[in-house]
Input
Amino acid sequence: MTLIQPFVTEVDFLSGALSSPGYVIERKLSDMTEMYADRDEATRILTEEGDRLIYEVQGIELPAEEGQIPHCSTRILPGDIGGECHMTKGHYHARREQGEVYFGLSGRGLLLMQTEDGDTSELEMVAGSAAYVPPYWAHRTVNIGAEDFVFFSVWEARAGHDYGTIERDGFRKLIMLRDGEAVVVDNPKYG
Ligand code: M6P
Ligand code: ZN
Output
């Protein structure tokens, strides 16, 4: 067990910026072209409009040891790809028995979850929402508003990110914009 000195981080609720991030991850459309249902439209945007920033994560680096509690902020920019709202890649925890807590800081989002047994859930999040991702639920966040959607996440250090399962199968539900409103639809390409 590594002994770490206590510390505090200032979080900007509007941008998600941390006062001293241990890491910053930028995810662009080119990092997740295959994840959007309309791949042709994703490819068209890349070719004709160029790459676009979809979301950014700023986090605190901690050892992956039992008892450590990593935390980070995520900012998803507003927009859509062929009507599908900007979203994170989404993941299961490599250790499925580990959960997570999300806290909304600004904007409007949906927390999309599913289990490997076929259950699905969509929870709306705004500033002040504390959402629980129970063990065994894959989780993806989606911006359904016109502003940045920003939230803060807290999990257990050994949870790990399993992206492969989602890259292979996708999510059972898609979040689409219809007349400016977010609607949940079945993903015809799931699995
Ligand atoms: C949340 C947490 C992070 C995650 C981030 C982006 O802040 O769950 O662990 O990295 O969202 O999501 P993803 O890793 O699925 O792209
Ligand atoms: Zn997670």
Notes: The two ends are 40 Å apart (CA to CA). The pocket of zinc ion (ligand 2) is lined by residues 91, 93, 100, 139, 155 (CB under 6 Å). DSSP finds two helices and 15 strands in the chain.
